[in-house]
Recover the amino acids of this structure.
């Protein structure tokens, strides 16, 4: 019976509809959206379950199983939204840390039932920014195992789908810039698990054997604290592990960790991760009160590229000043790049030329931390107030729908077939026809 169950899991593990990592296999891009285009707190919700503990990590889905990580505070504290967090910045570093349980749980995609829950560790972590959490790193799966990482404790673990821990590695806990905390999610690829940990003490990126947990390689990084997540860039010339740090984007050979290329001079740290279409990648950064550059490179880059003061170089495709994304990772659709900005702004750029197609303000849109997702006809933008703005793909701005859930949301959703999973502070919601 156990063998039969294992075979069933193996079959479902290769399902192309699984959502096995942050932003999915194609960085938020799908051929065709199957989940509903309209929903609200009162309509279109197949199920919702209360969240135990907090986390901005995304759900991952394999077959009928949804996996979540969380940090459960003994005082029941929860993260705050952007404006409340900014208002608390003057005092949060002096607040008293409390005990947390770091957990991983498994739910049924069908009805939200909890199938199992395990405590990875318990600790009193350092205080982090009130808008962040201690479980912001999304887990990942290779279709056979689940991998979790809590950077604030340094614990990397592997699990089978029944909740048995297979191995663990203690990678160390490090101070972050301005005590903002951590965020970089895991990547599982070709028998390896990749961890990026950019901090203010000992930054590194490393690969571990997915089956045994053995460290395969580790590269030190000059980067200070950053929050972008690494990903595998598949293009005609091969595959690269891409990591954005403080001012530099680097492409590594996944199997060995060898540096293939780097682009420096982007200035500040990254919160968002790049967008890709075909053999072109777009990346950039912006922070509160300042807008950084947006840069495009083509596959095949090698060696070190240093951008000049205009964020330009003969080795890149194009760049634009004051156009970089903030927290939310952008998405591509029909040869266009969509980037939400502060003040409810949405910008659309031509991927080929870098020219801005339009820039408009979406009425009612609040801070956007969740990464965008899209198919060939729609672009979805989820703000922290729980409103999802569905925009028509095209050269002209057209708002199709506005869908609202009453919750605080920074987590990037997971999409699996006709199911859309949105994680809020209060609940996990499954939206389905």
């Amino acid at each position: 019976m156990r063998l039969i169950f294992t075979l069933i899991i193996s079959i479902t593990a290769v399902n192309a509809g699984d959502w096995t990592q942050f932003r999915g296999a194609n960085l938020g891009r799908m051929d065709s959206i199957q989940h509903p285009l309209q929903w609200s707190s009162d309509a279109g919700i197949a199920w919702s379950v209360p969240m135990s503990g907090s986390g901005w990590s995304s759900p991952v889905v394999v077959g009928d199983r949804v996996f979540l990580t969380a940090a459960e505070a003994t005082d029941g504290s929860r993260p705050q939204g952007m404006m409340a967090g900014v208002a608390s910045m003057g005092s949060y570093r002096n607040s008293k840390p409390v005990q947390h349980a770091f957990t991983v749980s498994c739910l049924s995609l069908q009805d939200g039932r909890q199938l199992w829950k395990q405590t990875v560790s318990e600790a009193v972590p350092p205080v982090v920014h009130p808008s962040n959490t201690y479980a912001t790193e999304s887990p990942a799966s290779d279709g056979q195992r689940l991998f979790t990482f809590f950077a604030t404790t340094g614990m990397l673990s592997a699990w089978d789908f029944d909740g048995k821990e297979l191995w663990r590695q203690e990678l160390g806990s490090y101070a972050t810039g301005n005590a903002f905390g951590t965020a970089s999610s895991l990547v599982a690829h070709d028998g390896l698990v990749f961890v990026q940990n950019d901090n203010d003490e000992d930054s590194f990126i490393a690969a571990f054997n997915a089956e045994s947990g053995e460290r395969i390689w580790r590269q030190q990084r000059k980067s200070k604290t950053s929050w972008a997540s690494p990903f595998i860039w598949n293009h005609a010339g091969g595959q690269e592990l891409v990591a954005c740090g403080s001012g530099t984007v680097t492409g590594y050979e996944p199997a060995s960790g060898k540096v293939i290329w780097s682009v420096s001079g982007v200035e500040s740290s990254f919160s968002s991760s790049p967008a890709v279409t075909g053999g072109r990648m777009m990346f950039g950064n912006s922070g509160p009160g300042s807008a950084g550059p947006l840069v495009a490179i083509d596959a095949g880059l090698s060696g070190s590229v240093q951008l000049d003061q205009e964020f330009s170089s003969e080795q890149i495709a194009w760049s634009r000043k004051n156009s970089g994304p903030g927290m939310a990772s952008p998405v591509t659709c029909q040869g266009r790049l969509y980037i939400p900005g502060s003040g409810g702004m949405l910008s659309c750029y031509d991927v080929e030329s870098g020219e801005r197609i339009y820039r408009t303000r979406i009425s009612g849109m609040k801070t956007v931390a969740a990464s965008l997702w899209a198919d060939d006809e729609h672009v979805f933008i989820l703000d922290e107030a729980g409103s999802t703005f569905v925009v028509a793909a095209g050269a002209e701005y057209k708002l199709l729908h506005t869908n609202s859930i009453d919750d605080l949301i920074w987590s990037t959703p997971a999409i699996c077939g006709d199911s859309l999973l949105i994680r809020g502070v209060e609940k996990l919601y499954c939206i389905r026809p």
